[in-house]
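To whoever picks this up:

The parser on our side crashed when reading a file containing two proteins. I've narrowed it down to the boundary between the first structure block and the second sequence. Both blocks are reproduced below exactly, byte for byte. First block:
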Amino acid sequence: MNRQGKCGNYADCLLAYRNETITISEGPFVCPECKQPLTPLSAAAAATPKLIPTLIVGGIITLTLIAIVSVWLQARRLPKNTGTPEMQAQHALENQGNLIPERAKPAAEPSASPVVEEAAAGPVSAPAAPNLDPQSEENQKVKAEVLKRIDLMPNISADNKDKLYMSVERARKMGRVLIIPFAKGKTALSPADVDAIKAELGSPQLRELMQDPTCVFVILGFADTKGDEKTNLRVTQERAQNALSALRDKCGVINVMHAVAMGGSSLFDAQGVEKNRAVEIWAVLP
């Protein structure tokens, strides 16, 4: 006698997974594939209508719960709307940025460092009556410093260093005739500086010196003492050389000129360091 049934081993049996009807003509009433007892067809048919609705209802409940949780999470991220519709709209606009995901928000730009204004350099100036006495206390002090620095001049031969040294050492007249201030860290002359130098060179005492072919102009570059020695020497060499180039190329000075880097100094003012950032032009007459 043939008996029909279905296998309930859905996890491990392909016949159960396919919901196939199994016919057993003889032997034990078990699944031929997984050897698990079969459910008679009449009982299986009765159980099937209950199983399918159960699965459908369970799926609907699960989807509903997921939707509820999603709405709740979204509601937490949105600002609360209070007041009139107009106030709600304004509130939504003000908080619009809160809806941007963190990864999408642009990185905040670093705040710019405050700009510290530096004091401008003073004007180009010349003594009303140049002190050309090499024996004066001020001139003796600078003369001693210049003699120390001549050996450090990078772009002059040993022979010319000796000649310059002797010119300064034995000068019958020697003194400062022009002062060019520089701002901190600056080494170049501005057009205004060049114009001011030209104006000062037009004075009678400077014209007289420039007309003397034996007059040598020594351009001394100075810096304050804040930087290291190597940097100060470089800065003062550039200042002196730039002043020499301006005198020669833009002001028409044809006398022999030498640029001497004096490095960091407090010769002019030990307290007001800005007064030591300068180029001084000295006239030396043998």
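<<boundary where parser fails>>
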Amino acid sequence: MIDVVFLLLVFFMLASRFGVEAALPFPLGGGAGDPPDRLLVIDVRPTELRINGTLTTQEELPNAILAFAPQPNQPLILRPKNGASVQDVLTIADLITQEKFSNLVLVE
């Protein structure tokens, strides 16, 4: 009987969550309104970052986004490539939202 209780205790300890969950809102599609003049695609890779094919760094990312998309409501497409981790994408998404760009779209 004690073995069963111990197994249940271990099961519930491993199945429970102990961290704080955070959520970033990623829209699934565009809303009503005029489409943007051009799309802004940000390729997130493990070792590099590209905006519409142009190589950039995390430090240069806000200025590069402003050069491509001067309006803060412009949709920005985040596309993980070559095995980029979820943390890589979330780091870039957090950096972008700090610059008041909130219309992020995550694609595979």
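After patching the parser it read the second block fine. The first helix runs from residue 2 to 15. DSSP finds three helices and five strands in the chain.
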